[in-house]
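Why does this matter for the project? Reviewers at the last site visit asked to see concrete outputs rather than summary tables. In response, this paragraph embeds two records directly. Each consists of the residue sequence and, immediately after it, the corresponding structure tokens. Nothing has been edited or filtered.
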Amino acid sequence: MSTISKKICMIGDFGVGKTSLIRRFVEQQFSDRYLTTVGVKISRKTVELAGVKQQEKLNLQMLIWDIEGSTKFKAIAPNYLQGASGVIIVSDCTREDTIEHFTDHVQAYLSINPKGYIISALNKTDLVDKSTLETLTKLIESQEQQRVVATYETSAKTGKDVDRMFEKLAYTIIES
């Protein structure tokens, strides 16, 4: 079985849960402690994909770049986005301003990787009620951004849709 490596980036405002989502996906763990990412932290996880590229099975090693969400960091962020096959843009359901910045993150990513793929993650769904979540999901989806493959309502704390989201991005990158 062959293995392919692809770079994936996690971007979004500070404190939206990028690091927590990666930790849930890679280590199956969650911590309530807030740790600020300085610059970039790279994690890796190999996922087995079935029925792609005329092969029964294929391993995809995801090199996941956790990019700092600070506004003072925006000037060097393009260097970290270079060469990414896909990106997960994370917003915080409890902070509507992070959802309003979604389009800015899409444009920043596509300006560097115009053929890359985007997943939108509405994180911290365990902290909002269902009607609020529906409204926020519609807000993200109404922005109709090019190259956005899917929107997921995630929770790093409970694990809701975390694996599904990363696997969707993995399949999309390999099948294209």
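We now turn to the second protein, recorded in exactly the same manner.
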Amino acid sequence: MTSAEIISQPNLNTTAYERIELFNMPMDVVRFDQAVDQMIAWAQGDRSRIVITANVDHVVRFQKSAEFREMYAHADMVVADGMPVIWGSRFVGKPLPQRVAGSDLFPALASRAAAEDVSIFLLGGSPTTADRSKEIFELRHPNIRVVGTYCPEMGFEKDDAENERIVSMIRKAETDLLFVGLGSPKQEKWIVDHHQACGTKLCIGVGISFSFLCGDVDRAPRWIQRLGLEWAHRLVQEPSRLWRRYLIEDSAFVGIVLRERFKRRPRE
């Protein structure tokens, strides 16, 4: 499936924001508050929805991987997770209004879920972080309904029996909102493959957010986030794991942005 085919699909959004093509990808022009409102409405709805948070790594992978593009074809909302994506959108003349990061959506959606009786399930994370995130949310929001947590072992996604067990667990818990913290692209693939069977109303991948909430991984201060240097803060903490992605693979983002800019330049 090509990016043009993805963009041509009907937009399933019900609120007044626009879906555009940016860096050959579908992207929703949406503010943080709009995104939260829509997601909670979907979590109270009557069908299963998927939200993808697009960062620089996603933009680069989207250009190369047909499988990853197919995952995006299933997304009901795509938001910009990362200041470089926002800056890139402005540079090419398709400005997105605001960063909508998965790690900010995680606590914001949990707060709204508590207020509006939306049940949540936490899948993934490092060992114990899902359980501890549940405890933190329950301390912050006495009315919250965290109906389940589960941290599967490495490689679980290749085990059909384990996947069936997880799906059954989520379905039996009557989950409205499923947070999946498996890292990308594993979390997006798992959501696309299993969200219908889970019976959830909304699924969103939130990466390392469980560890941020628990304090196991130090998230960059807001001023570093605003400068678009959250990646550098992460790199300093986990250089052996992240150096190749951030310094080599994601450097292709610059070329993607420049190609988009020159493609749109009017003829003189």
